[in-house]
Amino acid sequence: TKFVYDFTEGNKDLKDLLGGKGANLAEMTNLGLPVPPGFTITTEACKVYLESGAEPVALRDEVSAHLDALEERMGKKLGQADNPLLVSVRSGAKFSMPGMMDTVLNIGLSDKSVQGLAKQAGDDRFAWDSYRRLIQMFGKTVMDVDGELFEEELEKAKRAKKVTVDTDLDAADLKKLVTRFKKIVKTEAGRDFPQDPREQMDLAIHAVFDSWNTDRAKLYRRQERIPGDLGTAVNVCSMVFGNLGPDSGTGVAFTRDPASGHQGVYGDYLQNAQGEDVVAGIRNTVPLAELESIDKKSYDQLMQIMETLENHYKDLCDIEFTIERGQLWMLQTRVGKRTAGAAFRIATQLVDQGLIDEAEALQRVTGAQLAQLMFPRFDDTAHGTKGIELLGRGIAASPGAAVGKAVFDSYTAIKWSRSGEKVILIRRETNPDDLDGMIAAEGILTSRGGKTSHAAVVARGMGKTCVCGAEELEVDTKRRRLTIGDIVVEEGDVVSIDGSTGKVYRGEVPVVPSPVVEYFEGRMHAGADDADELVGAVHRIMAYADRVRRLRVRANADNAEDALRARRFGAQGIGLCRTEHMFLGERREMVEKLILADTDTEREESLKQLLPLQKQDFIELFEAMDGLPVTVRLLDPPLHEFLPDITELSVRVALAESRQDSNENDLRLLQAVHRLHEQNPMLGLRGVRLGLVIPGLFAMQVRAIAEAAADRKNAKGDPRAEIMIPLVGTVQELEIVREEADRVVAEVEEQTGVELKLAIGTMIELPRAALTAGQIAEAAQFFSFGTNDLTQTVWGFSRDDVEASFFTAYLEKGIFGVSPFETIDKDGVGSLVKSAVEAGRATRPDLKLGVCGEHGGDPESVHFFHEVGLDYVSCSPFRIPVARLEAGRAAS
Ligand code: PEP
Ligand code: MG
């Protein structure tokens, strides 16, 4: 294996091996751009080092050979006394981990070569300042010396001289400081600061390897879902200096505005400084455009290079550069991060510029970005308005814009929300006891924990706005208040939290609907403003996606209003109408009567009452979805969900008995509740089992569907009803229900004289159904995978409990990176889906296949369903655009 690559040997596609920084430095070198020469040690070398505790044997010689070549090229030797070559040793993993790993600059300086540098640069102060920086950085990162000790010494030197900034220390001061720094190293590390330049370099390389496994790097990787075994590459690069005087400097630049996507001159420049000074914020930077008046030649060259880079990468690039005495050097570039809106704009702009085609444009945006653009957001123009104050910033954990009164415990959250108040639940961190409070709140704010903290995971699962880990905020739950500096937020004060940016405000920030939703709703007005430009870009990308996708997209909806919205959002039918949602409110009592019925007459009576109501529901739904398929699922949930709570009822009955006025009805009810009470209701009397046990229930629902369809046909409509049987485990169950359904449909056809052609199919929600899909397809005209229940039953995870109980621990331990209820578990649940698809189609080649679990609207899962050959995905109305986009991305 080759462990070291010269910058001239790599290219941008070697990120696995050379890391992002190394691969792009090589790419720029080969484009002929001014990159300071150097070489990259591969991630493979790092992996060997981390696994075995020692660098690969061959590494030393390879590094020597590359160093020789570098010295030859530069005409000076590393650390040479009279004319030293200095290098930086920088980390650079495949994925950017900003600030997480180590870097050491000015390697090669020693007591001797510092003199040589002074001569080279013609600047004593500069040389001694560089040397003290090396000892400080090297001492801290390589020799594990507490960085504070150096800082204190530096402060002391400034105090002694009665100055406040580093630049007021002269060469003699810095020389003294070097002596003190060396003493610190000796005392703290128990050895002298190494004078041998090669030893400095080797130790720095090892330190960079080791920094892959620091706690903060590990935490960052876990939060960003970066695998822990990739390792980092190490870039050894000849030093250039931006701090050699006013004709030197350093800066960052973007080829486009990463916030809007607009082309122009974006970036910052700091004269007479090194990169570290910019990060440290020691002096204020100036806008990049001002470089033109500072150093026109370098500015023009930089603009030229930015154009070259954009045309080459065909994307927005960000850049770090340094100017050393009027000579421009490129230190880094990469395809830059951008906001969701900019991603859509840039993709279409690049198509217009002829740089990429439409298929590529689709790959430049994601469903997650589209989802982000669909959340309502805070009105930017409200900043600075009276009464609104930015308190701080945390981690944007679950998007959305939430406003409410501050509460500091779940009990208050529930109490206040019951009385109609909007509340924001503020906790140091949340735990499973807070679940009800989180549900009651508009949004959740915590001062601790990252993207995988309990609050973040649960909030995302509930689609609730969440900002977590806002560490500047001092949360005092005992005194029910939040402090930041001298600002105090008391219980009841209004706060606003932005789950897309992590910003936290005091006061009510006005919320505006997303222009992208206004567009999907057909309410977006014309007018050449910024929002229109975004909408134009979304419109075009959606059009590409719709053109190329194979998957159809349907909605989970059970009323006309949702159905109409779904249609506006592009739904091509309803994939799941949950009929239990039609029995809520006043109708619950009718179902209660049905359950309590002792005699056939009583039962038939309540079914007769329900029938016209159901029929009317379906008429409205079929009308809203005229011409498109509507899959109606027969009643699914455990019956006790329609009965009163067992504890509450028991208490009521006991109280009544003690007052000796017990009522007959309550007693009967209590008996029924006891009879129907189940330890595991999700595995109990529900789904098709209900239809088989309660005579007439499914028949009533089928009749309502059939009569509604007949009515719509008579009204010249085009109803396309499909009847779906839930929770089937064996073909026998389905056969019995089908026989009855076919009979009822035939009766309705006979009575109305209308030919109906209603398809009857089943959900695949149980492992047994998936495993016997070939048999089940004999009796089903379609399958719809109920991946919520299928995940529950394949994993044995209670879908109602686990996310709030132990999933946080599972996520933290990396057992899975994302809940299997959110993204389909391809290896387990997914492989059952795949084999059921194959077995079903083998029995019935024209079997229609879809999915209606939550996964139908999840980007990664949509790609999986495309791959296994489903015909459609069905998801909640709001996620339809995301599913359309991802189906397009999957197909292109
Ligand atoms: C499912 O189980 O995936 C499904 C869609 O049905 P429900 O969520 O109603 O149980
Ligand atoms: Mg289900």
UniProtKB/TrEMBL annotation:
Keywords: Pyruvate, Transferase. The keyword Transferase applies. Its EC number is 2.7.9.1. This is Pyruvate, phosphate dikinase. The keyword Transferase applies. It comes from the Bacteria. It is an enzyme of class 2 (transferase).
